[in-house]
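**Fold in tokens:**
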Amino acid sequence: MNLGKVVGTVVSTVKNEKLVGTKLQIVKQIDLEGGETGAFVVAIDAVGAGPGEVVLYASGSSARQTEITQDRPADAVIMAIVDSVEVDGSIVYNKS
């Protein structure tokens, strides 16, 4: 799993039939301090994340383990919206 921030949406009117009905989000990977790493992915959104939200995402074969992505051509999936991150006893991110 990786931490990321939703930075955009991908809209595609012509796509594989197994992707019909999925929401595609652009996720920029972040480090534990919230800094951008430069990496990004297009991920199927399984939880209804919105722009600017910090999320957990999985990539590779793990991305096809959710109910929404099972048996779909997915390489990344957003599987959680992060409320807070604690590292060594300190809160480094808090949604509120």
The chain has no helices and seven strands. The CA atoms of residues 84 and 90 lie 11 Å apart. Residues 2-94 form a domain with the OB fold (Dihydrolipoamide Acetyltransferase, E2P) fold (CATH 2.40.50.220).
